[in-house]
Design goal:
Pfam families: HIG_1_N. This is Hypoxia induced protein conserved region. It comes from Albimonas donghaensis. By secondary structure, this protein is an all-alpha fold. The protein has two domains: about 30 residues; about 35 residues. The protein is about 95% helix and about 0% strand. α1 packs antiparallel against α2. The longest helix has about 35 residues.
């Protein structure tokens, strides 16, 4: 189970990276898309980061408890 949580945590971190790169790319391009969606992309990144952190903490807890 801990290995599965570790893999899921890694996938969540990659999702955060993807959202971050998408946001930076749209910011660099600018224009109407950036003005309209910049805050939504930022919120999505923060939510994805929170989920990733919780998954990492659960994986560490599971490894320490030996489940």
């Amino acid at each position: 189970m801990p290995n599965t949580l570790l893999v899921i945590s890694l996938i969540a971190c990659l999702c955060v990276l993807g959202v971050l790169l998408f946001g930076v790319g749209s910011f660099a391009r600018g224009g109407d898309f950036n003005r309209k969606y910049a805050n939504k992309i930022m919120r999505l990144r923060i939510i994805a980061q929170a989920i990733a952190v919780v998954l990492i903490l659960v994986a560490v807890w599971a490894m320490r408890s030996g489940n």
